[in-house]
Design a protein that fits this description.
- With about 100 residues, the protein is mainly alpha-helical.
- Helix content is about 45%, strand content about 10%.
- A two-stranded parallel sheet has the order 1-2.
- The chain is globular.
Length: about 100
């Protein structure tokens, strides 16, 4: 079992600090979620190479990381399966007009 904490998940930060991080990430053409997804994909690749595993592996994510775990499973073909654990609620959408 390998537990991965993608960047910026180790501790909480204020809304202002988070906005600064998002702005900094956008200056280099990235999003924070994109960087976290990259961390997950690289960790899965490293784990497979280190253990010499050619078979599919399972990726799990909890809460906000549930969506990233699913994306990683979709993008990382050898993984094969992904599962969101207590995924975040869907965003509220405005009512559709007929």
């Amino acid at each position: 079992m390998l537990i991965v904490n993608p960047r910026l998940t180790e501790r909480d930060c204020t809304a202002r600090a988070w906005a600064d991080l998002e702005r900094t990430a956008s200056c280099v053409g990235r999003t924070i979620a994109g960087m976290q997804l990259w961390d997950i994909l690289r960790a899965a690749k490293w784990a497979r190479a280190e253990a010499g595993i050619a078979a599919p592996i399972a990726l799990y994510g909890r809460q906000e990381m549930g969506a990233l775990g699913l994306y990683a499973a979709l993008l990382d073909n050898p993984s094969g399966q992904g599962r969101g654990w207590h995924p975040p609620p869907p965003p509220l959408l405005p009512p559709q007009s007929p």
